[in-house]
Write a structure and sequence with these properties.
By secondary structure, this protein is mainly beta. It has one domain. It contains 1 helix and 6 strands, in the order ββββββα. The chain is globular. The N and C termini lie far apart (29 Å).
Length: 83
């Protein structure tokens, strides 16, 4: 899948119309993404995120949730403190 829109740093829309909110601690990974970046979505069993977006070029991964959901505040703060 390709990126349709990535206007807001924390939300990405893919060419299939799906919209994903990127985990705050993973935003730096997305800085190199371009419209031609090929991504795939995978389910994951993490406590905070339901899915990951994988850059098929370099295999980097970012944690995501559907754009209409919210991150659990306490867990996000703990994860960001822990690195």
């Amino acid at each position: 899948m390709k990126i349709r829109k990535h206007a807001e740093s924390h939300v990405v829309e893919l060419d299939d119309g799906s919209q994903w909110k990127i985990f705050p601690g993973d935003l730096a990974t997305t800085l190199s993404w371009k419209p031609e970046t090929d991504l795939r979505i995978e389910q994951c069993g993490e406590r905070m995120s339901s899915h990951v977006l994988v850059n098929t070029g370099d295999q980097s991964r970012v944690r995501v949730i559907p754009a209409d959901e919210t991150w659990p505040d306490g867990e996000v703060k703990d994860a960001l403190k822990g690195g």
